[in-house]
Amino acid sequence: xxxxxxxxxxxxxxxxxxxxxxxxxxxxxxxxxxxxxxxxxxxxxxxxxxxxxxxxxxxxxxxxxxxxxxxxxxxxxxxxxxxxxxxxxxxxxxxxxxxxxxxxxxxxxxxxxxxxxxxxxxxxxxxxxxxxxxxxxxxxxxxxxxxxxxxxxxxxxxxxxxxxxxxxxxxxxxxxxxxxxxxxxxxxxxxxxxxxxxxxxxxxxxxxxxxxxxxxxxxxxxxxxxxxxxxxxxxxxxxxxxxxxxxxxxxxxxxxxxxxxxxxxxxxxxxxxxxxxxxxxxxxxxxxxxxxxxxxxxxx
Length: 300
What we know:
Low-confidence stretches: 1-8, 62-73, 76-80, 226-242
Oligomer: single chain
Structural class: alpha+beta
């Protein structure tokens, strides 16, 4: 197994091929994933959550690097097994993944927090963007330039061209609008949860993905999540004329993540602070879409 740290998430392991994440299983997060898969009342969220593949017990202790498991000497293993969540790795398959972790919500403390922590987290919310906007940008990974959704310019060639970035942004906005609708239907409180946005920074890969989906999918989202079905189709079509070509990976993916302090609250309505955060993200995307359109007009 290999270590990884996505936007500051230390202690997360990956499988050798990078397709699977293994992270410590905190009680509420494990309960969330189990309830999500077993209770039909939470079905609106399912398309927007990473695939949960089960749990795994790791025998040993976390290494000093925070990203490896150190085996214990024989005879000292009993009682030290660490239960972990096994999830799909959302960045797997991207050539150059640009990753943005947007913390959602106006409340930063769990209902079980001490009075001291509640006061500290209320102060943090007031002193940051959380209370006013419902979002905090806690981490990001970009390739080549410290901006998200940049366009190439005279000062820097980095970024996707507008002809690729615009349809991607419009589709991302549509997907997040659907996520907002799903969140509005589920009665829960999500503290510390995130909206994770990953998009392809490699021009060739992004162009391949955008072109494929725009040509063949009509109104369907560019990031339509049918990878499992397409993998099966690829295997079946291999060796047949015209059917062996692998379908391009969508140029972006968006999911809700980090549920260590998420509680389902039947009858209490949706989390308004989280919805406020999603509305902020949608407003920012709309502004960027207009900027990209303006840039395209200037170059006509």
